[in-house]
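Journal club side-thread
Mid-discussion, someone asked how the predicted structure for our own chain would compare to the paper's figures. Pasting it here so we can look after the session.
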Amino acid sequence: MTTQPPRKAQSWIPTLEEVAALAGVSSSTASRVINGSPLVTAQTIARVNDAIAKIGYVPNRAARSLARRQTQTVAMMIPERTAEFFADPYFAEVIQGAAMHASSTEYSLTLLIESEKDPEKTHQLLRRGNVDGALILSHHSDSSTYRELARTLPVVFGVRPPGEMGEEIHVVDVDNFAAAALATQHLVDRGHKHIVSITGPLNTSAGRERQNGWSETLIAAGLEPGTSAEGDYTPAGGAAAARRLIEADAPFDAIFIASAQMASGAMTVLKESGLRVPADVAVATLDNNIFSTSTTPQLTTVDLHTATKGAAMMAAIVRLIKGEQVGVEMLVPLDLIERESTAL
């Protein structure tokens, strides 16, 4: 009689991602089923439960603890250089809006600025279950790390991340194309025919969308888009771009500038060059902040309601943590604020 060798202990531990893949749903949907969310169809529940049974998945205690919001903390993650963060009022306004909304909930908001030397350190902090969810706020959208994070932790982005928009991706932002189109159309309506532009960084989705909003609005009005110069959302970048426009020696009677920070720098260069605003050149921009009101004359701008954006991001993350359904892309309102820089 031969004896069978003893069986080896199973070393493979099924994961939530494998359950989701087998069931044909996203990880967040599988998580909702496991945590008893009512906002899941009976068919989806059956598919997820069948997948759990087939591969022998056992929910991780730490993950279940996270789903029950035991930390009651949401992280506002800023993947930007520290100097840029403190210089840009955009971040302060969004954070203020998020903090105000957080104060009306059971959640606390904590601020994390990504380490410039070791960004992985900050990513690990989020993955360890120290927070119930994360808000990712940046001018840029080139970090795939945070997209991967959204598969295991509720995440809301302030800028659309690269790649396809899956169920796990949720974005609260402005319609950058529409904002630029609104400012440009205002210049067209004032009778300007030669409208140039200072764009944001064209390696960002917001920069490209704002440039397209400017150019396509002019084309729709039967006008040829003038010269454009790329900036970096700073006053110095706006000033440098304005110099390049003037040195190009192409005639222009109006400028659309993709941020008020850049516009404030450009206004200084226009004055130094002997160009009067709005008598010689009209200026319209985006962002209704101190940079749009500290120039002479004050700037016509599109209010992007950044504090409202912060509050909407916080509201969305709370709903996600609670297992509720949230839209893939949510847009905040836009308003044109007319000031002296485009006055006739």
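Post-session note: The mean pLDDT is 86.
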